[in-house]
Write a structure and sequence with these properties.
- By secondary structure, this protein is of the alpha+beta class.
- It has two domains: about 220 residues, no CATH class; about 170 residues, Alpha-Beta Plaits (2-Layer Sandwich), CATH 3.30.70.
- Helices cover about 65% and strands about 10% of the residues.
- Strand 5 and strand 6 form a beta hairpin.
- Helix 5 packs antiparallel against helix 6.
Length: about 425
């Protein structure tokens, strides 16, 4: 069962086609093999083992009770003749129970079950042989009844079922031939009569097993489809939160991240910074070099920013056409300015062409910085608004610079600039 819980049918490339092939067959032609067969065995083993153990315990208890009752109602000599052959059943049943307490190799499980059933059926038959008279025929019929109940309820491989059926019919024929009360012809006729019933039972058991296997195949197929649907949904969710051009997060993802962090991670309230980054004169770059070059510039700028932040903690998103938002959780004012300065210098050092810029012949970046301190309760929208205000002033005062938003003692805005 644990194998099935861990199963992802897409982990084995050959498993899905095999499941589809089997489901395309007629029900009666379904034959499990290889990995599918192993998984089915793991799926049904627990239930089959419980049934086998319960049946063996039931037979052993019934045998003991029957022998005890015989001692009370039958003549002493007859009852005592039944004790020795009847005593075979309890140890045989207990041995099978012990083997089926946990999964074993298939040959051991099958061998123990067939051997245990043979000893149980032999014991039932020998009880009648030892008692003689009317008990001879009666016990042989009881033996067949015991075999049929086992065949019906044991969800075991067909070969094991056929072996149990053959043992039951073989024992019946051997002991009936030796029965002094009937002729050989009658013994053979009786065996053939009971054989038809047992074969019908085996056929019914086979159909039940095949239907169980087909249900299992449907379960595997449904699991595969659910897994495929989940992966498709994950891909769609990822696409919905990813900027298709740069490959980094988009505005939607950043908005959800901010809501999550401010709502669940109180560490963000102990110090967080936002950087609003804007490419200077980006429209002129598109006008002079074309939109294809502009797209390549955006991709390179996104990569450079990503290289200058902490991948395990910081968050980057493309927030607009040429705007990028960076969230730096748990940083001081000096650390935030340092990161922003490193990003600006890296962009400048990359020397990406922008011939239409009034600042430089290369691409430059203006960055507005806003820092939340531990003693102020600021929403992400308010913090972003401060970073926007700092960015606006950075662009108004010459571009290609980092400006920090700071309120003065009177609550008025104060901007600290750094190149």
């Amino acid at each position: 069962m644990s194998d099935l819980k861990r199963l992802d049918v897409q982990d084995d490339p050959a498993l899905s086609p095999e499941v589809d092939r089997l489901l395309a067959c007629r029900t009666r032609d379904i034959r499990l093999k290889g990995e599918v067969k192993r998984l089915f065995r793991a799926r049904v083993w627990s239930q089959t083992a419980k049934i086998v153990r319960a049946w063996m315990i039931w037979v052993a208890m019934l045998d003991v009770l029957t022998l005890a009752l015989n001692m009370l109602v039958l003549p002493t000599a007859v009852a005592q003749s039944m004790l020795l052959p009847g005593a075979i059943i309890p140890p045989a049943a207990i041995a099978v129970v012990l083997v089926w307490r946990k999964p074993r190799p298939s040959w051991l499980e099958g061998g123990s079950l067939i051997t245990g059933m043979f000893l149980i059926l032999l014991s039932v038959a020998l009880v009648g042989v030892a008692a003689g008279g009317e008990f001879y025929e009666r016990q042989l019929n009881v033996m067949l009844f015991v075999a049929i109940t086992a065949i019906i309820i044991f969800g075991i491989p067909l070969a094991w079922t056929v072996a149990i059926a053959a043992l039951a019919l073989g024992l019946y024929l051997v002991f009936q031939v030796q029965n002094p009360a009937i002729e050989h012809g009658s013994a053979v006729a009786g065996t053939l009569f009971f054989a038809s019933g047992i074969f019908a039972t085996v056929a019914a058991r086979r159909i039940m097993t095949i239907l169980a296997q087909k249900t299992f195949l449907f379960e595997l197929r449904d699991r595969r489809r659910v897994a495929e649907l989940a992966k498709a949904n994950d891909r769609l969710e990822l696409l919905a939160k990813t900027d298709p051009l740069t490959g980094i997060a988009n505005r939607r993802w950043m908005t959800e991240t901010l809501e999550h962090l401010w709502g669940n991670d109180k560490r963000c309230l102990d110090g967080a910074a936002m950087l609003m980054c804007d490419i200077d004169h980006f429209k002129k770059l598109n006008d002079h070099l074309g939109h294809a070059q502009g797209d390549r510039c955006l991709v390179k700028v996104a990569r450079i920013i990503q290289e200058n932040i902490r991948r395990d903690r910081d968050h980057l998103a493309r927030y607009g056409g040429e705007e990028f938002l960076v969230l730096l959780p748990g940083v001081t004012e000096e650390e935030a300015i340092s990161v922003a300065g490193r990003i600006r210098k890296s962009i400048e050092a990359a020397a990406l062409p922008n011939p239409g810029s009034r600042v430089s012949r290369s691409v430059t970046l203006s960055i507005g910085v806003a820092v939340q301190t531990a003693d102020e309760a600021t929403s992400p929208e308010q913090l972003q608004g401060k970073a926007d205000a700092a960015l606006y002033l950075a662009k108004q005062t010459g571009r290609n610079r980092v400006l920090l938003h700071q309120p003065d003692a009177a609550g008025r805005k104060h901007i600290r600039s750094t190149r």
